[in-house]
Specification:
There is one protein chain. The protein is of the alpha/beta class. The protein has three helices and three strands, in the order E-H-E-H-E-H. A three-stranded parallel sheet has the order 1-2-3, sandwiched between helices. The radius of gyration is 12 Å and the shape is globular.
């Protein structure tokens, strides 16, 4: 069974690495992590993109405008496979 981990992100550069590392360190391996960037103004997307290069289970959706965490999660649900 595939698990989808949905993570809204807004200016989360201080915490996004720790969040991703937490998922990577889990023993269960059949997962996808969908990070939805809610039009961040910091470098959190750059950090996420570095992780994507190392692990293709991590996906990034970049929103064109800030719509809030709840709506960002809904965007991830549209593509989630778990």
């Amino acid at each position: 069974m595939k698990i989808s981990i949905i993570t809204p992100s807004y200016n989360s550069s201080r915490f996004i690495s720790q969040t991703i590392e937490s998922v990577l360190n889990q023993t269960y391996k059949n997962w996808e992590m969908i990070i939805v960037d809610d039009k961040s103004l910091d470098n959190s997307n750059t950090i996420v993109e570095e992780y994507i290069k190392k692990d293709n289970r991590i996906k990034l959706i970049k929103l064109n405008k800030n719509i809030g965490a709840a709506m960002a999660r809904n965007k991830a649900l549209e593509i989630a496979q778990g």
